[in-house]
Amino acid sequence: MAKLESILTPELLSEVLSVWYGHVSDGSSVILPSQDHVKVWFSSSPELDSVCVKSFGPVLDAIKESGVTSGQQILDAAKPKGPLDWLSLVLLLDQMPRNCYRGDASSVVYRLFDPLAQDVAAAASEKGIPDLEPQTRWFIGRRLWFYMPLEHSESLDLHRLATEKFASLARDIELLISDNDDPSSLIGGDDELRAKAARVLGASAESAEAARGVAKAFAAFEERHSDVIERFGRYPHRNGSLGRASTDEEIKYLSEGGETFGGGNGHTH
Description:
Radius of gyration: 19 Å
Low-confidence stretches: none
Strand content: under 5%
Order of helices and strands: HHHHHHHHHHHHHHHHH
Distance between the termini: 28 Å
CATH superfamily: Tetratricopeptide repeat domain
Shape: globular
InterPro entries: DUF924, TPR-like_helical_dom_sf
CATH architecture: Alpha Horseshoe
CATH topology: Serine Threonine Protein Phosphatase 5, Tetratricopeptide repeat
Number of helices: 17
Pfam family, one: DUF924
């Protein structure tokens, strides 16, 4: 793991955040990302792909060549010191590979990086980082990424957990909106971040509804993923990349416009 320790540095983790949030202009937008912000993250962009390949392709290749088999090995090498370091690792393992390995190269995303990301996200959840740490809990544009590895899984149990996590996010959004109506209890310490988030979400009826809309959209997207896993036990659109034989039902499903979540258009999902 010595080689990984020399690669997974604090500087690298900082660069991950700089690249991923490069289009987000201010802290308020990390609390409540706009549709345009979200679109950049979830649409295939040659520009973003190019930046990710240049900045993180060598790092991902080094992880691939290191023989690493668990997220704990990644954590031992990176030694994350705070919530944002944990966020960087989840992004590095779950999102960056999807921008760096597309098309025929995508099998490594599913075989290697997704399990690593799931391990790291699970460890983060055990420590309460997404749901309890103020730097992540009250920032929708940070918190949601800890749940993406669950959504990318082909485990129905992890999808059930993802459903619970997105429901928890929706509850916290309602909490923030109600906080803005009575902010007097939020004074000092960690409550300052909660109060800031409450002001952003409760600034207007439009912002409150936008926040609710984000939570609803991500919950619905997870439900679509979960439905596929419940029906097939896997994502049929990944079969080609993974060298899996498709069943007749899967072939029929995909030929009739079944869900690929962008994976059928050169995207990696």
